[in-house]
Amino acid sequence: MQVLLVEDDDGVASALAELLGQTGATVVRAGRGGDALNRVKGCDLVLLDLGLPDMDGLDVLRTLRRASTVPVIIMTARDGDGAVVLGLRAGADDYLVKPVRKAVLLARIQAVMRRVQRVAGAPAHAEPVVAGPVLIDRDRREVSVAGTPQPLTKTEFQILATLAAQQGEAVSREELMLEVWGTAVVGRSRSLDFFIGQIRAKLDGLPLQTVRGFGFRLDS
């Protein structure tokens, strides 16, 4: 299991990393919210402090929730029912108030991870997706317009495939950026807009809609 530990106190982070390492987990450390959003891809669990130097941990969580369903456990000194409710409403799977006993932390991690269902073996076959005159074959990594193959770059195909996997549903900009570049930070927004424009230019008639203030949706 790979755990992203978001904690700006080096002493606390080192102690937690050592504890998690003893359980066999691989720990990725981040002391800032921006770093956490850059390093979350591929992680199985996030332990998130709220008192970060560059941004509030709740803002990190809200951004992360628009991009990923990775389990998140908040560990913070913020006490009180109001703080807990805010954290859980923002998308946390659990909320722990520091100091946290080692046995309690490990038990909470195990409880959260038990709720995460993992699919073993090879991924299921993905049926081709039809979007207007465009056929998207994710298994073969092929795209055609009215039967004519259209070459896409790796990045263009990855964006299109992510949208095709959720056809008819709005996909956030953050989720697309996390999937393609491994980061959900806003600095990639212009790059995403450029590639969306390239996809539209290459695939005439593609029903790719902009969802204002959120992201994009691929219709049928």
From TrEMBL:
Positions of post-translational 4-aspartylphosphate modification: 49
UniProtKB keywords: DNA-binding, Phosphoprotein, Transcription, Transcription regulation, Two-component regulatory system
Domain OmpR/PhoB-type: 126-220
SMART domains linked: REC, Trans_reg_C
DNA-binding region: 126-220
Annotated GO biological process: regulation of DNA-templated transcription
Protein name, as recorded: Sensory transduction protein RegX3
Organism: Mycobacterium aquaticum
